[in-house]
From TrEMBL:
Organism of provenance: Jatropha curcas
Protein name: Endoplasmic reticulum transmembrane protein
InterPro entries assigned to the protein according to its UniProt record, in alphabetical order: BAP29/BAP31
Membrane topology: Multi-pass membrane protein
One Gene Ontology biological process: endoplasmic reticulum to Golgi vesicle-mediated transport
Primary subcellular site in the record, as a coarse category: endoplasmic reticulum
Coiled-coil ranges from the UniProt annotation: none
Family of this protein: Belongs to the BCAP29/BCAP31 family.
Length: 104
């Protein structure tokens, strides 16, 4: 099962797959930045007025949940990409070690 998954991820990352993944990641990062900016504006407005507006409180909670989801998704995507790279390198090194053992 692991080899099938590795082949599938390798195939996806070839050609335009890598470009699409980077574009999606950049878009998510842009949206993540916009959400964080919105959160900072709501907090600034609350600090200036000194009174917590219920509408702002609900908006702030929603924006924080969105930012958490975006950040977690970006983190998981990055970790999956790195893990794939390390597993691929591990397979390559194992093959080289096996070839060296056969030569001896």
């Amino acid at each position: 099962m692991r080899k099938v998954l590795m082949v599938g991820i390798d195939y996806m990352k070839r050609g335009r797959g890598q470009l699409v993944a980077k574009t999606v990641a950049a878009t998510l990062f842009g949206v993540f930045s916009a959400i964080l900016y919105s959160v900072m504006q709501i907090q600034k407005r609350t600090l200036e007025s000194g009174v917590v507006n219920p509408t702002d409180e609900v908006l702030l909670a929603e924006r924080l949940l969105e930012a958490t989801l975006m950040g977690f998704s970006l983190f998981l995507a990055m970790m999956a990409d790195r893990l794939h790279y390390y597993i691929k390198e591990l397979y390559r090194v194992r093959k080289e070690v096996e070839q060296l053992k056969r030569l001896k």
